[in-house]
Amino acid sequence: MKDFELFIGNKNYSSWSFRPWIALKHKGVSFRETLVPFDFDNGNPDFRDFSPSMKVPVLRDGDLTVWDSLAILEYAAECFPEKGLWPSDQKARAHARSTSAEMHSGFFALRAACPMNMRRPIEKRNVGDDVKADVVRIVSIWTECLAVSDGPFLYGDFSIADAMYAPVVSRFMTYGLSEDPIVSRYAEAVTSTQAWQAWEADALKETWIVDVDEV
Ligand SMILES: N[C@@H](CCC(=O)N[C@@H](CS)C(=O)NCC(=O)O)C(=O)O
Predict the structure, then answer these.
(1) Which of 107, 109, 108, 181 is nearest to 151 (CA)?
(2) 4-8 and 58-61: which strand pairing?
(3) Do 22 and 94 belong to one domain?
């Protein structure tokens, strides 16, 4: 019996919090949610109470603390193998781990220029070549995955890989980064999930403003 408590940041901005949250919700893993906002210039000192890295997300399971989005998702996949958080096929799973890790450790230009901000009115943003290169690479990952799996999600059923790219879907829409029909179809699949809709509804109600993420 698991007793998951997930600490997250502002739903409007916290892209890393969104990743484990949408995966656990979509897969029906029950957890308590504790939102601790970061609306300070230098983070929130209250993070010290639960986060060894002073960042969110953090998962507590009894006396165990797991920090970092991908570590949380890996732990959840181990605790609930029946939920199919990773694809069941070994080769697809290795591929999904590769695409998830590439997201986790990359796309810095996109992340810096286009922070997740669900409340931002949709408006195309002119971006530099470094961001365009990130967009091209992401579209190529999605195109390849969806061609092999036939969708609607990257590996057929929703998996950790979709959770890792969910905030990217938000950025693509908010900043009008791609007109590729494959992107629109994939975005439609991800944003139609009940989990996405629930997170977004909460995000839109928030009133905290993080200046650095308002571009
Ligand atoms: N690599 C970490 C990144 C976590 C991270 O940067 N979280 C941001 C929120 S999205 C944060 O806690 N920012 C507050 C701060 O840096 O003070 C992960 O994957 O969980």
Answers:
(1) 181
(2) antiparallel
(3) no
The residue among 148, 154, 211 whose CA lies nearest residue 13 is 211
pTM above 0.85, yes or no: yes
Considering its fold, how many domains does the chain have in total?
2
pLDDT at position 44 is 87
| Mean per-residue pLDDT over the chain, rounded | 96
Q: Are residues 10 and 50 in the same domain?
A: yes
Tell me: do 35 and 98 sit in the same domain. Answer: no
Q: Which domain holds residue 156?
A: 90-198
Q: What is the mean pLDDT of residues 24-42?
A: 91
CA 55 / ligand 1 centre spacing (Å): 4
**Helix/strand/coil for 78:** helix
Enumerate residues 6+ apart whose C-beta is below 8 A from 22: 163, 166, 193, 195, 196, 199
Query: Looking at the structure, do residues 13 and 109 belong to the same domain, yes or no?
Result: no
Out of 13, 55, 164, 168, mutate this one to test ligand 1's pocket (max ligand atoms within 8 Å of CB): namely 55
Q: Is 134 in the pocket of ligand 1 (CB under 6 A)?
A: no
116-141 residue pLDDT tens: 999 999 999 999 999 999 999 999 99
Residue 77's domain is classified under what CATH number?
A: 3.40.30.10
